[in-house]
Amino acid sequence: MRGPLAALVAASAGAAYVLAVRPRLLRWGATTQEAAGPLAGDQIVTAPRLQSTRAVTIAAPASEVWPWLVQLGAGRGGFYSYDWLEKTAGLGIRSADRILPELQHLEVGDIVPLSPDGGLPVRLLESGAVLGLGGSIDLRTGKMSPAGVRPTGRRLDIGWTFVLRPAGPQATRLLSRTRYDYSPVAEGLVLRTLVEPMQFLMERRMLLGIRSRAEGRRS
Predict the structure, then answer these.
(1) 153 has which bridge partners?
(2) Residues 150-177: what's their mean pLDDT?
(3) Can you spell out the DSSP letters for 124-179?
(4) pLDDT tens per residue, range 67-78
(5) What is the fold of 29-218?
């Protein structure tokens, strides 16, 4: 009976995750309207198989949140998340606790490093409002394809966009949306199972890290 019982427990746990836990992870902090509505940057991955929208309210105007976004990246301002975990993974990322003037110039086409080995190009940039990153990774080589080139075989398309919206005279909503498409589907489903929980863990901490820095700088 151990086999059938174990299978039943596993199936129940899987169903509980899909029905109760997963929706909360994919829209942590975001309203139903924010999670379901269109955002700037959606065009980076037009037909995603996976989408998440997470958000946080920051007690500071967008002009004081934006500089923290512009300096994102490995070897730059970091990701304001769990540095110790990123170091354990060998990424060597350290998050800044101040605005770095030398990193405040970003243009479409620039690469925002995710690790020492590569990153995502800037696809959309509206100063003080929208920062959109994205590209296609060739899963056979593990490398980012050139801008505008989509691998024909095993691939992972990523769109990662940050949107700032006014939430009052001295407050801002910071939304982070990720959209993924992948091929083949079976391989992507396995990848999604691994990526979703880790992405939630790191991105939640990142949003809270940006909030604490922007609010601390303002005070």
Answers:
(1) none
(2) 90
(3) EEETTTEEEEEEEEETTTTEEPPTT---SSSEEEEEEEEEEEE-STT-EEEEEEEE
(4) 999 999 999 999
(5) Alpha-D-Glucose-1,6-Bisphosphate; Chain A, domain 4 (3.30.530)
